[in-house]
Amino acid sequence: MNRKRLDPASSPQAAFGVRLRSAREEHGWTQEELAQRLGYSSTHVSSVETGRKPPTLRFAKSSDVAFGTGDMFERLYRKVRNSGLLEGFPQFVEREAEAVEIRLYEVGVVPGLLQTEEYATVLAESVVRRGAISEEQAEERVTLVAERQAALVRTPSPWVFAVLDESCLRLSVGAPDVMRAQLDRLLDFAELPNTTLQVAPFAMGERRTIRLPLYILTLPDRSLLSYAESAQQGHLERDNAFVVPLLTAYHQLQADALSQAESVALISELRKGIP
Q: Taking a C-beta distance cutoff of 8 angstroms, is the pair 74, 143 a contact?
């Protein structure tokens, strides 16, 4: 991707590269001079400018400091990072941070909003070992988990309804201390004044009304938004004609799931059984 062919509209990564080069040239710096200010090699700077290498958060923040651009490059970086997420998820995360009610159902793994940093790190590192993402991308995934959780610590706090498939508790992730800490986090979550935690046991069988991970948001204006995903595809839905039936199915799932007291008892029992 050379200078003439680099189109900022082609991708967030290309937009970052074009803006970086423009800022450098406006300051009259060579790539070598900028590299010294950022603490990177000139080859690395060149690769980012030409879109061959994605920027990291550290690179973006260093660029903002070097050029005195506030958080402009950091914001551009977040668009680059989000471009690797499933379709609709970046937009969902933005609305999640302002929702007054969050309903979630997860299968297989503990959902990001309830993960410990260690649990999230193990999951991300496993994807690195499969060659699906880089180590930098893994770090960014863990950072996103922390950012989503931090965005929920606000006043007034949103009400969070969480229904976890029993598989979320049974799947062993990382060393025993990682799972112990994760189950402890779930127990702590259940004690919060603005949360409801339920487990959908395997025994529900065919009565399970939802089979794939699902999130439903109630926004400040009481409008609804849903986000559902499979392994390769995400779908953000704002049309009530489609979201309301999902909300009904969620209520039915809650009705058949274990109560919070029963769920806490099950989690506590599994916690005791970890060696």
A: no
Distance CA 261, CA 252 (A): 18
Q: Among 46-60, 106-120, 181-195, 210-224, which stretch is predicted with the lowest mean pLDDT?
A: 46-60
pLDDT for 266 beyond 60: yes
Q: Rounded to an integer, what distance in angstroms lies between the CA atom of residue 259 and that of residue 265?
A: 10
Is residue 98 within 8 A of residue 219, CB to CB? The reply is: yes
Mean pLDDT of the region 54-81: 88
Sign of CA dihedral 70, 73, 77, 83: positive
Determine whether domain 12-82 maps to CATH 1.10.260.40. Answer: yes
Q: Which CATH number fits domain 89-114+153-272: 3.30.1850.10, 3.30.870.10, 2.40.30.30, 1.10.10.10?
A: 3.30.870.10
In terms of Cβ atoms closer than 10 Å to its own Cβ (0-12, 13-18, 19+), residue 169 is: buried
Mean pLDDT value of segment 68-73: 92
Q: Where do the DSSP E strands lie in 82-205?
A: 101-106, 159-165, 195-200
Which pLDDT tens digit goes with each residue over 157-209?
999 999 999 999 999 999 999 999 999 999 999 999 999 999 999 999 999 99
The helix, strand and coil proportions of the chain, stated in percent and rounded to the nearest 5, come to 55, 10, 35
Judge contact between 104 and 163, C-beta under 8 A.
yes
Domain locations in the chain as residue ranges: 12-82, 89-114+153-272
Output the six-digit token pair for 267.
Answer: 């989690």
Which of 10, 219, 245 has its CA nearest to residue 95?
219
Residues 6+ positions from 31 with CB-CB distance below 8 Å = 24, 42, 45, 46, 49
Q: Has residue 1 got a pLDDT over 50?
A: no
Q: In degrees to the nearest 10, what's the CA dihedral of 126, 95, 15, 135?
A: -10
